[in-house]
Amino acid sequence: MFDLDKWQEIFAALKKNKMRTFLTAFGVFWGIFMLIIMLGSGRGLQNAVYEGMKDFATNSVFMWTQPTTEPYAGFPRGRRFFFRNDDIEALRNNIPEIDIIAPRLQAGVGTSSTDNVVRGIKTGSFTVNGDYPEWNLIDPVKMLDGRFLNQLDLIHKRKIAVIGDMVKEILFEKDEEALGQYIRINGVYFQVVGVFSPLNSNIGFGGDKAQSIFIPFTTLQQTYNYGDMVGWFAMTAHKDVPVSIIDEKARELLKRRHKVAPEDKQAIAGVNLDEQFRQITGLFLGIDVLIWIVGIGTLLAGVIGISNIMLIVVKERTKEIGVQRALGATPRKIISQIITESVFLTTIAGYFGLSLAVFLLEIINKALEASGGEGQAFKNPEVDLNIAIAALVILVISGALAGFMPAKRAISIKPIDALRDE
Question: What is the pTM of this model?
Fold first, then answer.
């Protein structure tokens, strides 16, 4: 049943100490406000990173060659070597754990090239990749128009190109159709068969994907006289197979085939995306733990402030408590009164702190969407509703505990002593 007199007493007590009450409540308000803001910011950063990786095959490994650092088999240190076409079949035949293998070669490797692509009077400097169709299974793109590379393009060494949306924007007019048109890449004409936009913004190999051009791998080798050179390999593992197994086996096989010292760790460089993904996950876990430590510390400071002000309230109301005890008030009623005041103050401050933090995160989210910044370094800062409610419940419980010690002190005073208190 609602006890009007009881709540009137609570409001009167808090009003009497309004400045101390406000400052103490502000500590609780600020604690939960900062906790929610930090949790939302951490989630916004995490969402942006995972959004940029969501379509990328994270169970993949990438490998390329570098100068050797150890002399071996009669070859000197510092030897430069390249992967070759026959390495593709060697990897497929000797490492059954490989699911997808996609070689890549980049036009102009080892040279500085500007304005390498021309269309009419328009020119631009773009990354030109020679790829297998399988590359789109590892690092997929969104086709806006036309198609991606296919197997027949490789077999017939077709001079076709799939261009990024930024390439189209630079080389073509705004409403001009790109499909079927020709562009000149390093002096050779290619027909545009597709236009794409990147799906993954946070992972990229070989430059800005929006300013990239895909042509068939075999076409690039033959057209620009690269022979059977392969720039690097991208490989994925079968389901439930750690990609580290492929990483280890592929390095060992390729070193043996290219006469590289087994102990030379620099000659074949690479990136294990599965390992990188786990490191990122661990990083965000560490950030979350740090946020909770800082947030709980801030909340604890506010709760201690609540406990301190309730001790002052009990001290100032010693005589009043003595009168209540003399008139028959039970210890339970006195404890209930003190704890209720503490919980009330904590809940009100916590509620406003939580509400303002969630409101501010929503405003930030709307601003990001309006500015087009979503999906970059920060995306959809949010806090799980269950976590927010749990934080508020913990705060209320903490408020009850904060009022328990002052309440115990209140009932420890004998009525006769309380009545004599000045």
Answer: 0.68
